[in-house]
């Protein structure tokens, strides 16, 4: 698992560096502005305790340039437990609060995204707060955003690979 984390970080750093250098040669005027997106998320946790996850989110995006953006994301995610040999274990629901950086790397539609933040457990008597980080890749056009991300939850002793389908628009 540690190797997967290092590989994701290295890929993100390489793609970010490539995008940054490419932008130095592009001097264009661009109307900076905000976008708002509403997404549905489904995921597969990579450990044996959770069966699947489902959630929704709201993402505020500020476009710095045509190829780079800052993001703030929150919502709700529920991790559904597997049966534990007749022992009733409750699902874990939490609210993520993440800040991120999005860099479009190909044709102004394909991007890499890195987010960090916290997950606040809010259901079934869970009271932990976890650090979370999430590198991802995606495709976005004027209204649709589809992405896949790896998301790690330190205190929840799990992580997941999740798909996000979202609708967004300029504010």
Q: Quick check: average pLDDT?
A: 86
Rg from Cα? 17 Å
Number of helices: 1
User: What is the percent of helical residues?
Assistant: 10-25%
Counted beta strands: 8
Strand order of the largest sheet: 1-2-3-4-5-6-7-8
Report the order of strands and helices: HEEEEEEEE
Outline the low-pLDDT stretches: 19-25
Shape: elongated
Secondary-structure class: mainly beta
Give the end-to-end Cα distance, rounded to a whole number of Å: 39 Å
Largest sheet: 8 strands, antiparallel, barrel
Work out the strand percent. over 45%
Summarize the structure.
By secondary structure, this protein is mainly beta.
Write the layout of secondary structure elements.
Layout: H1 2-24, E1 33-45, E2 50-63, E3 68-81, E4 92-106, E5 110-121, E6 129-140, E7 144-153, E8 158-170
Question: What can you see in these coordinates?
Answer:
- The chain has 1 helix and 8 strands.
- It has 171 residues and is mostly beta strands.
- Strands 1-2-3-4-5-6-7-8 form an 8-stranded antiparallel barrel.
- A hairpin with a 7-residue loop joins strand 5 (110-121) and strand 6 (129-140).
- The radius of gyration is 17 Å and the shape is elongated.
- 27% of the residues are buried.
List keywords for this structure.
171 residues; mainly beta; eight-stranded antiparallel barrel; 1 helix; 8 strands; 60% strand
């Amino acid at each position: 698992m540690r190797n997967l984390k290092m590989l994701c970080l290295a890929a993100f750093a390489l793609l970010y560096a490539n995008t940054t250098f490419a932008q130095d040669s592009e001097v264009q005027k661009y109307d900076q502005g905000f976008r708002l997106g509403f997404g549905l998320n489904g995921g597969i946790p990579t450990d044996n305790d959770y069966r699947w996850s489902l959630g929704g989110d709201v993402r505020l995006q500020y476009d710095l340039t045509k190829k780079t953006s800052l993001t703030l994301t929150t919502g709700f995610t529920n991790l559904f437990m597997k049966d534990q040999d007749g022992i009733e274990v409750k699902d874990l629901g939490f609210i993520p609060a993440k800040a991120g950086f999005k860099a479009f790397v190909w044709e102004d539609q394909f991007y890499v995204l890195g987010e960090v933040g916290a997950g606040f457990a809010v259901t079934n008597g869970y009271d932990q707060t976890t650090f979370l980080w999430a590198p991802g890749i995606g495709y976005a056009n004027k209204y649709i955003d589809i992405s896949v991300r790896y998301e790690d939850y330190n205190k929840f002793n799990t992580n997941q690979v999740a798909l996000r389908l979202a609708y967004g628009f300029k504010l």
